[in-house]
Amino acid sequence: MYLKCPVCKKEWNASLKVARHIFGNGDKAHRAWVNSQGVSFTDLLIRQATGSGNQGFMVLAKIVESSQDGTSGVAG
Ligand SMILES: [Zn+2]
């Protein structure tokens, strides 16, 4: 199952990889998308840096997963 980055539409085979891409990219568009999901990009980065077990990545991965659903009709 492939998951798309909701921002730039690149695809990975795991939501965690999409999350890592979003953090790693960290440009304005990606940050804005994360913030538009009701979470703070900066806060997630801090959680990732200071927490254990990839907490920041996991939270973002869940958001990426749910963003894949309910997007029918938005096919590019
Ligand atoms: Zn992207």
Q: How many domain units? A: 1
Overall geometry comes to: globular
Helix content: 55-70%
Order of helices and strands: EEHHHH
- Structural class call reads mainly alpha
Present as ligands are: zinc ion
Strand order of the largest sheet: 1-2
**pLDDT below 50 for ≥5 consecutive residues: which ranges?**
72-76
Cα-to-Cα separation, first versus last residue:
18 Å
Count of individual helical segments: 4
Q: How many beta-strand elements?
A: 2
- The averaged pLDDT comes out at 90
What radius of gyration results from the CA coordinates? 12 Å
Structure description:
The chain is mainly α and about 80 residues long. The protein has one domain (about 5-70). About 60% of the residues lie in helices and about 5% in strands. Strands 1-2 form a two-stranded antiparallel sheet. A hairpin with a 6-residue loop joins strand 1 and strand 2. The two termini are about 20 Å apart. Zinc ion binds near residues 5, 8 and 21.
